[in-house]
Design brief:
Length: 89
């Protein structure tokens, strides 16, 4: 199950009950953020391996930031970790 806590134009906050829901979360993020070219499934799997204790049942925040060239960066944080990934898009 994917639980969405908060969503707006530049921010999505959600939680996965287990890693078996990564493909579903990937599809949801791809639909919500169609203008971004991000392999969400890969990012979530890497986060699960990187974050101590994995990403199960932890709040995941995805923030989209535009720079002066209108390129976009995605900043992802998990639970109590301030910054986990910065992804160009």
């Amino acid at each position: 199950m994917v639980i969405i806590h908060n969503i707006d134009d530049n921010f999505v906050s959600f939680e996965l009950h287990s890693t078996c829901h990564i493909p579903m979360a990937s599809r949801i993020l791809s639909k919500l953020k169609e203008d971004l070219y991000v392999d969400w499934e890969f990012i979530l799997e890497e986060l699960h391996e990187t974050v101590e204790g994995g990403i199960d049942r932890k709040r995941i925040d995805v923030m989209v930031m535009a720079d002066s060239n209108k390129d976009k960066m995605i900043v992802v944080s998990v639970g109590e970790f301030d910054l986990v990934a910065v992804i160009p898009s």
